[in-house]
Amino acid sequence: MKKFLTGGLIALTLMTFAYNEDAAAASDSKNPLLQKDLLPNGAIPFDRLTAKDYEDAVKEAIKLQNERIDAIVMNRAVPDFENTIVAFERSGAELSRAALALSNVEHAVGSEDMMQALNNVTPLLSQHESSILLNEGLWDKIKQVYDNREKFNLNPEDQRLLSETYLGFATNGADLKGEDREKYRKLKAELADLNVKFAQNTTNTMKDPARRLWVTADQLAGIPESIREAARQEAKAALEAEGKADDESLYLFTVYVPSYSPFIKYAEDRDLRKKMYQLYNTRAIEGEYSNVQLLKDIANVRLEIANLLGYPTFADYQLKHTMAGNPDNVYAMLNELRDAYYPAMKAELDEIQEFARKTEGPDFKLEPWDYSFWSDRLKNAKYSFNDEDMKPYFELNNTINGVFGLATKLYGYTFKENAEVPGYHPDVKTYNVYGPDGKLLGLLYTDFFYRDGKAPGAWMTEFQTEVKDDEGNRTVPIISIVCNFAKPVGDNAVLLTPYEVETFLHEFGHALHGLSAEAKYESLSGTNVYHDFVELFSQFNENYLTEKEFLDGFAKHYKTGKKMPKDLLNKFIKSSQFGAAYACVRQLNFGFLDMAYHTQKEPMRATADIEVFENDAIAPVKIFDQLPGCYMSPSFGHIFSGGYAAGYYGYKWSEELDADAFSAFKETGNIFDKKTAAKFRKMLQSGGTVDPMELYIEFRGKKPSVDALLKRDGIKK
Fold it and tell me: Dihedrals φ, ψ of 517, to 5°?
């Protein structure tokens, strides 16, 4: 699961804040989080901060922005672009810094004090957002500027800021009257609180000791030695935390991906695989951290907000400001992909089941806890390939050099570790990133290892977004990449699976989007683009995982130094194509489920059976008969707490874009073609300053087509 932003957790979706040196100078805060001059380039002094500092900084910054907005409203001058639109855009510099820092660190650290700090400020942030969006004096001035926009002789970027600011208010309650305005305010506050509770329940249920699987050495058949060692260390640490003596016969597996995924893939004991599957797929369903009622409440509040604003469903409202435009276009894409991939997926499952029956007998029925295990064995039989075969070539430090090196080859970027800038955790490293001209592009934090309390999955976040002042001086972006790779065991090398390298490449693509930004305004800078466009830049990078010319630069055996053999890579490519149909249909399951929740025209009843609802929603792309009591909605953080509501389809939408974009390089005969890379970099730099389809057509010379994706996945020859 991939995510690139956590700002959605605190309802900062449309209330954008840009950093401005003049605005910062107006603040005389003693809070170290709000003092941008303590470290070079505005880096955050994490080593000086407590949870209370984060909380206090948000509260102080809210007050400061309110004062600036009051000044805009009280200004007697005729409203114009500078004194209204730009002034508002720059009014929340400190709040951007404080709120992003709090939400990002809380998500990556998950400590009780940071969780509480976020809980304390979430209703304040929601109220603050609503107060701004429902500020009639401010809205009247924005409308005046928008209605008279032809008089201001604005350049294209200024025009874009004006139109996006106007739409941001118009589609978020600014035109509501009377009681509806207060109702909207309360609904937004309620939704923000529900989002945070959902996310924290998901994190807490992952940490639940009952959601762990203790096994003994005789139950480890099939599990690679490196995974066994990690499970042994996990058991040792857990016993120590409980004040118990270590027992070398015990091994511990958890529902965190670095532990869960290899167990479900390699464990020969089918009953244990089923048990682990149940532990994973019953997260946040029952008990103290249940999300079942919360997700109903979230869906219903969203529907109520959409209805209040004049839309029949939340999806109609949410998709208004996307490339897709409306639910019909989303369903058209989902159905097109289903028609193309579903027959191939069924053929894959039939082949896997027949292969398993040679061992298990003629009555064996493939179940969801069997798929990873038997598909991996079939891959190995057909292609003599196993993910473990590639791990020795993906030592973490070499892989970091290789992934960073992709940006060097394409765009001329270079990376240098900066030990002087502290991270928010000892695992975090900081890098200075330089452009082809040798100038500092920005700072990059890397946070690779799994730890208790850290949210599952991988994501990119921004602590500071690129922006320019009126003289063109650039505030550099500060970006982080967060993953959940298994920690090193003793002095052993950290070896990554191909999937983990793909994840790294993905998040690095988002990071490059933020680092490359060249925009004047934060709300149009970097990753501040339409949801169904933002994944293009991350998924584009994934294409290089199957290119030997790229891999030869770093994928060398960690012991022998030999390059990855071509036949091993070819086996990986073929095996990847074998599972491509299943992988696509699995993503379509998420997409159909997301749309089902957000195209409802009536509120969900408190008595609604979520398990039944989910099974009905994914029926068009059903893969397996679901095990009773197991379903994914209560832990589906992307749509209930992560900003992808009515937007999960964007992954597949962007996949069509990324396959088509990469084919532009392939057509030149050079996957590092400088001319094509320069055009692609322009899209990276442009952020939201230009309509995304216009940007893409300028890069490609035509609208995107699904053909390249079908060919890449082996669906179309």
Answer: -55, 140
C-alpha span between 154 and 145 (Å, rounded): 11
Give pTM, 2 decimals.
0.81
Tell me the average pLDDT across 555-560. Answer: 97
Q: Check residue 39 and report its DSSP letter.
A: S
What is the rounded distance in angstroms from the CA atom of residue 338 to the CA atom of residue 340?
A: 5
- CA angle in degrees (0–180, nearest 5) for 637-251-495: 65
Question: For 289-338, how does the pLDDT look when each residue is reduced to its tens digit (9 = 90+)?
Answer: 999 999 999 999 999 999 999 999 999 999 988 999 999 999 999 999 99
Using an 8 Å Cβ cutoff, are 415 and 404 in contact? yes
- For the record, the structure tokens of 538 come out as 């991350």
Cβ pair 125, 96 in contact under 8 A: no
Rounded Cα gap, residues 184 and 324, in angstroms: 26
Instruction: Determine the Cα–Cα distance for residues 574 and 541; give it in Å rounded to an integer.
Output: 19
Decide the pairing of beta strands 474-475 and 478-485. unpaired
SS3 call for 478: strand
Q: How far apart are CA 501 and CA 572, in angstroms?
A: 13
* Residue 531 pLDDT class (50, 70, 90 cuts): confident
Q: What is the residue type of 25?
A: A
Distances in Å between the Cα of 452 and the Cα atoms of 109, 446, 457, 484 are 8, 17, 13, 10
Tell me the pLDDT tens digit for each residue of 358-406. 999 999 999 999 999 999 999 889 888 888 899 999 999 999 999 999 9
Residue 680: is its pLDDT beyond 90? yes
The answer to whether the CB of 181 falls within 8 A of the CB of 173 is yes
What is the DSSP secondary structure assignment for residue 256, as one 8-state letter?
Answer: S
CA pair distance 153, 149, nearest whole angstrom: 8
Residues 6+ apart with CB under 8 A from 25: none
